[in-house]
Amino acid sequence: MKKKAIVVGATGLIGGFCLQELLKNSQYSQVTALVRKPLKLKHFKLKQLVVDFDKLDKVAKQLKANDIFCCLGTTRHKSPTPEAYRKIEFEYAFKIARLTLQNKAEKFLTVSSVGADPGSSAFYLQTKGEVEEVLSALPFKAVHLFRPSFILGENDRKERRPSEAVLEMIFKPLSVLFIGPLHKYKPMMGQKIAQAMVKAANNKLQGVHVWEVPLIESLVK
Questions:
Q1: Domain ranges, ordered by start, for the chain
Q2: How far, in Å, CA of 91 to CA of 65, rounded?
Q3: What's domain 3-219's superfamily in CATH?
Q4: What pTM was estimated for this model as a whole?
Q5: 56-101 pLDDT, tens per residue?
Q6: Positions marked catalytic
Q7: Virtual CA dihedral for 203, 207, 210, 215, nearest 10 degrees?
């Protein structure tokens, strides 16, 4: 039997690539994108659900799928206060996980970060670590935590920042230097991370799994 998927954060880099990978994957009959505004993309398998993320309970009954791909993310520019940042990175992700679990979702896959640690002194890594902690405690059949370092590439995002392009120019040629203990910090293409997430959703692993760069690469060789 074919599966259904939900993608949260489909307008972002990895979320956008996840959506593309899922739409062309024969394992899925329907892919629902949770969005604030309608996407221009049209596809016979695509269902768009326009939501207010502060009122997710109103659409709870529609959040039904086998596999949940959570690619939510924000920036200091968009979320300048710790409270605003935490709302998107932690509260929304946790809420979606709980609602989809109530609807019998089996797998939850999310984009975290290398160095994620609830005990970190860095607010960003601390928040990512706390998200991992609460998601890992939920009784999904499988929870997959993806921990990339610097993410390369672009999709159709209109808000791509100049700083991203500069950092990409710096890091891309240096990728060969990230070996041994530094391998997990190696920059990686967003599309490859999305491909790895879809691969992980379609394997038979159960329980909680952490995917840092070396393991992510092993999924998409």
A1: 3-219
A2: 20
A3: NAD(P)-binding Rossmann-like Domain (3.40.50.720)
A4: 0.90
A5: 999 999 999 999 999 998 766 676 688 988 999 999 999 999 999 9
A6: 124, 128
A7: -30
